[in-house]
Amino acid sequence: MHEHVTQARIDLAAAFRWAARLGFHEAVANHFSLALTEDGSRFLIQPRGRHFSRVRASELLVVDADGRVLEGAGAVDPTAFHIHSAIHRGVPQARCILHTHMPYATALACIEGGRLEPISQNALRFHGRIAYDEDFAGMALASDEGARLCAALGDKPVLFMGNHGVTVAGASVAAAFDELYFLEKACETQILAMSSGRPLKRVPHAIAEKTCKQWLEYPDLAQLHFTELKRILDQEEPDYAD
Ligand SMILES: [Zn+2]
């Protein structure tokens, strides 16, 4: 158990560091969390006010379902607690939850009827796997907003939060981070394609379904990706694992 939690801390810290390198962070807002218990009632999250590029494994907080900090120094951000706690408890298979305002995905969330279109190989990974919430109601400062977002996500790994950003859920940090990475790449391609003013070239439904299946069955893609990112961090900024 102890070793498991140590590795969980290192993985989540690596996700923060790499997200910062990719420009997925926003000031000291946005949050990543990882469930430590089966029912999601206890999870790791960063202390309030910490920049993604400075997060260390050992300083991640352990928080319970009531928002109490059980381990670590510092406070948990209230909006982060409402969103992450509700999803960890309501969707227990969502072990790792990554919430960002990353630029291209957020741009798409701010377009009337904005949908990830089946126009690129990367986008097809998400075919039928995205939930869209259109009912932005201000910052998530109350628990009912967390419950609403949890219901909107359902069993999908990706939630587009209209007028706000995205939330990605996965079975592990590696799985969720890989989804986050490819989601932003797919959104970037779509926004660039839309900016040409030319018609989008949509792939037929059957091809989209086939390609999505190929993505999901591709062996070890997320794990290989994330392992390599950690190797680079081990060389270039090893204090993430402290
Ligand atoms: Zn947000």
Q: Helix count?
A: 8
CATH class: Alpha Beta
Query: What is the CATH architecture assignment?
Result: 3-Layer(aba) Sandwich
- Largest beta sheet, briefly? 8 strands, mixed
Task: Tell me the strand order in the biggest sheet.
Answer: 4-3-2-1-5-8-7-6
Kindly identify the CATH topology: L-fuculose-1-phosphate Aldolase
Bound chemical compounds: zinc ion
Mean pLDDT: 95
Number of domains: 1
From the helix content, strand content and strand pairing, which structural class follows?
A: alpha+beta
Characterization of this structure:
The protein is an alpha+beta fold. It has a single domain, classed as Class II aldolase/adducin N-terminal domain (L-fuculose-1-phosphate Aldolase, 3-Layer(aba) Sandwich), CATH 3.40.225.10. Helix content is 44%, strand content 14%. It is built from 8 helices and 8 strands. Strands 4-3-2-1-5-8-7-6 form an 8-stranded mixed sheet, sandwiched between helices. A hairpin with a 6-residue loop joins strand 1 (31-35) and strand 2. Helix 3 crosses helix 6 and helix 6 (173-195) packs across helix 8. The longest helix is centred in the C-terminal third of the chain and has 23 residues, at 173-195. The mean pLDDT is 95. Belongs to the aldolase class II family. GO terms for molecular function: lyase activity.
